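[Primary structure, fold]
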Amino acid sequence: MLRLKDPQLTLWDALLPSDLVQLNPELARVDELLEDDKFMTPFISRFEARLGRPTIPMETYLRLMYLKYRYGLGYEVLVQEVNDSIKWRRFCRIPLTQKVPHATTLIKLTKRCGPGVVEELNKALVQEAREKKIIRGRKLQVDTTVVEANIHHPTDAGLLADGVRVITRTVKKIQEAGIAVAGAFHNRQRSIKKRIYEINKVLKRRSNEAYQEVREITGAILKTTRKVITEAASIVREAKDTLQQQGDQIKGKIHALVQTLEETISRTEKIVTQTAAVQEGNLHLPDRVVSIFDTEARPIKKGKANAPVEFGYKVLLQEVEHKIITGYKVLQGNPADDTLLLGAVEDHIKTFNHPPRALAADRGFGGSGNESGCHQLGVKQVSLPRKGKISKARKAYQSQSWFKRLQRWRAGGEATISLLKRKYGLRRSLSRGYEGTTTWVGYGILAYNLHRLATMV
């Protein structure tokens, strides 16, 4: 059952000295911003209003999530810090006589709300900034960055080892539950671990012969992984037969374990297929799996000297005056930047009901037709450097004062991205999958915008 607010105060809260409960200027302004009822609207359609166990108040959940992403706290640490701080309790609307919501409660609420709620919350915050005339949408800059997935650097042997480890661990849990024969599966983790160590020793030589040895060792790991998959598949069949026979007598947790094992086998089979292709010399695999734990993460090249390839998700950011992020989009795959510009301008028009007067982007967005397309959408000044060698006329055009001024303003957007990565969690997403990463990015941007607006209101 949905609870939006909990207005009741206890006697202890009323007796506390004002110095103990007075919020600092930042939290007081954020609290004032979040007081608007429009921030409760996204939750209404996702919860039953009359049936079920009452949820924690959504105003409490929203403020807890702000503190989490504002200060980079984990769920458990967040609960401890709020529990120990009277001011943070008052900010989150948690009376002294009540317990702070458990970390697992916050995790489940975040998963249930998904990326849709935080997207609507960001739109509501932008709308409030518009109503207070803090932003007007006259200037727009567009850029992309990569949010890394929480995975280790992928190698063929490492991915196969991950698959074997997870399969072995899940089979052991199923066998301990008593729904599969204990001797039908062999633990081959030790042999794979030895071969991983062999690869680490061979790679120290850094020669062509070492590369061939690595491929041979990887081939041996590949054979072992296929044996593990075959035995695990028989475990799945046996477990399903047992589940059908015993029916309701088996707990739902066992059903979930069998389903997890099936999914892990499927993912490991994909890794086996792509590793076999690499062993045959095919190094160009468009749908390469880079992690068994996050199969939607992609290898992305952004041309960075210190990170030639990043593994995660590409994010499109739209920034207006006063460094407010008015739009974001977590992309699937690695689309070219120049295919994203016109869509970003159209989203800006939907948000502000008018096109930006000026637009700035880097050279990556300078595809053919983008500049004329922006003019057709109503943008008067388009500061978009062309790719490749430019003519004298184009060079003179890009040397105009307004063009260079917009490019200098665009360069400030790099600082915004750096701040988002350093302070608001956009360097690496600790949530898995596309939906998890989209939710993670959304809350990071929401916390950034709230803090930014709190310093301006």
In short: The longest strand covers residues 139-149.
